[in-house]
Amino acid sequence: MPRLFTGIEIPADISERLALLRGGIPGARWIDKENYHITLRFIGDIDMRTADEVADALGRIDRTAFPVTIDGIGSFGTRKPHSIIARIQPSRALIELQAEQERLMQRLGLPAEQRKFTPHITLARVRGVNAQEIANYLFQRGGLVSRPFEISEFVLFSSRNSVGGGPYVVEEAYPLMQRAPANDGSFDGRAASA
Q1: How many domains does the structure of the chain reveal?
Q2: From the CB of residue 93, how many other CB atoms can be counted at a distance below 10 Å?
Q3: CATH code, 52
Q4: What is the pTM of this model?
Q5: pLDDT tens digit string along 46-81?
Q6: Is 103 inside a domain boundary?
């Protein structure tokens, strides 16, 4: 039974920058930069027939590429923090892509995702770490903002049953349509229609 989820891979230059944030929290398990991603829809452990149906359904998604921006560092878990994350600025295109995948998975009979979609990249998992240490870490590094990076595809990942953090394998990639160039009003040599 494969354990599957959909997500967006992170460009190498952004991953390199995020990897520089590693360290400074004793006991944290830092995710390898090769495994940084934005999870869109966790699917879980499913049989091969359902996995084929999932892969086929995802192939019918017809959306346009869009930019994404990291807008800071944060944590999940209020009283007991469990993850250090890079926050992704929500955009309409990202939210709609995730929502379409959610609808498709439910049509295939998979249970609805129980958690609200909060776009992020997990950088580390923490357990039993003092909340003050996390607060200090976030205060020192929390101002990270990335350049916008283009999302030109999403992927179907598989993972082995582990405590998290990979390794993840891309089972299938689904390209998004390229965006039309912005019309800047410049003359392109064609006659205007009357």
Answers
A1: 1
A2: 17
A3: 3.90.1140.10
A4: 0.87
A5: 999 999 999 999 999 999 999 999 999 999 987 788
A6: yes
